Inverse folding.
């Protein structure tokens, strides 16, 4: 998991998944909570987990697996969901400093992040894939990327793997704020591959006429969870209760199936 451009206020509820967006007005989560709002931080460039459904810069409508989960958490606790869309890199800091109540963004639980925030129970298991051109035969496994031009999303697990584990030369790595941009660079031949979370990678590969390559030996399974401020046990318990119910009822699995068939970018 590891998904911004601006904050805006949603005007009305045009779709089922429409939620209010926190405007850049300086309101703290404490003030939002007082007005019965739950503030979610995300990076809405990570389909099918979170994405925007309109290009109107004045009205953003959010959708996706994580948005549906967050909305359920808010509804079950009698609150209105408010979404802050920002760079993925800054989400942990936003949670730890109280700028948002929780980060729901296809976020992988890692030891480094656990030092700054507390995580909920996991709700989804993913891995990484390499997205390449359909006729590419030179990349069969992760180690083949060492001398290739590789794209990653800044701050995602793929960035860490390519940089630290595979030690691809920095000059050969291209970082972007969303997977869609660097996927296009594979299509036009500027990059040999993109390393990204499997669910998103496979969906974008199919949509763009590319192929996704797995390497289970190099890419370990990752657990997605929701981050909250350290010590916020009340919110954590509320989140875990809803996640448990959604997992036991099969609702999360149904969401995954639903959004896997949607035409999202």
């Amino acid at each position: 998991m590891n998904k911004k451009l601006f904050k805006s206020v949603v005007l009305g509820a045009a779709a089922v998944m429409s939620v209010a967006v926190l405007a850049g007005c300086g309101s703290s989560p404490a003030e939002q909570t007082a007005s019965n709002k739950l503030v979610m931080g995300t990076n809405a460039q990570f389909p099918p987990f979170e994405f925007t459904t309109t290009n109107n810069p004045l009205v953003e409508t959010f959708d996706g697996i994580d948005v549906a989960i967050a909305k359920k958490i808010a509804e079950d606790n009698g609150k209105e969901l408010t979404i802050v869309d920002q760079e993925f890199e800054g989400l942990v800091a936003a949670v730890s400093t109280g700028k948002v109540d929780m980060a729901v963004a296809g976020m992988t639980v890692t030891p480094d992040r656990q030092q700054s925030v507390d995580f909920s129970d996991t709700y989804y298991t993913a891995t990484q894939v390499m997205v390449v051109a359909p006729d590419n035969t030179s990349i069969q496994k992760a180690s083949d990327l060492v001398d290739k031009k590789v794209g990653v999303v800044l701050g995602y697990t793929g960035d860490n793997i390519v940089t630290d584990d595979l030690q691809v030369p920095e000059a050969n790595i291209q970082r972007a704020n969303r997977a869609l941009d660097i996927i296009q660079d594979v299509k036009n031949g500027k990059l040999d591959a993109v390393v990204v979370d499997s669910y998103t990678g496979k969906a974008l590969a199919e949509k763009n006429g590319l192929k996704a390559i797995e390497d289970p030996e190099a890419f370990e399974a990752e657990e997605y969870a929701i981050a909250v401020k350290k010590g916020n046990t009340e919110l954590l318990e509320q989140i875990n209760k809803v996640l448990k119910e959604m997992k036991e009822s099969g609702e999360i699995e149904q969401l995954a199936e639903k959004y896997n068939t949607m035409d999202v970018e």
In short: The longest helix spans residues 233-249.
